[in-house]
Write a structure and sequence with these properties.
Length: about 100
């Protein structure tokens, strides 16, 4: 159920002005819905806050990310939720990417 609620929001985000596609990078930016200090977009579904990039990557992988995994951005743009810009990895992998 959480995935279906999120997918409706994600579909809306891709098709309406809340987000836009950055032409040079093909990023799908979450836009005005960024509410965290680090600008990683979050959504609240049934009272639980989720980081959008983790949900999107989990859907792409067909499994939820483990607590030890992070959604790494190959584009280095935190509000991007393009599933093809997201890679699973550890905190150390993410640190090495910097």
């Amino acid at each position: 159920m959480i995935v279906s609620i999120f997918l409706r929001r994600y579909d809306y985000m891709l098709n309406y002005p809340k987000a836009f596609h950055h032409e040079s990078l093909d990023c799908a930016l979450w836009g005005t819905l960024c509410h965290s200090d680090k600008k990683y977009p979050k959504v609240k579904i049934q009272g639980i806050t989720y980081i959008v990039s983790r949900i999107v990557l989990g859907i792409r992988l067909g499994r939820p990310l483990t607590e030890d995994e992070q959604a790494r951005h190959s584009c280095d743009i935190p509000p991007c939720v393009n599933p093809f810009h997201l890679l699973p990895g550890t905190a150390m992998d993410n640190y090495r990417d910097m």
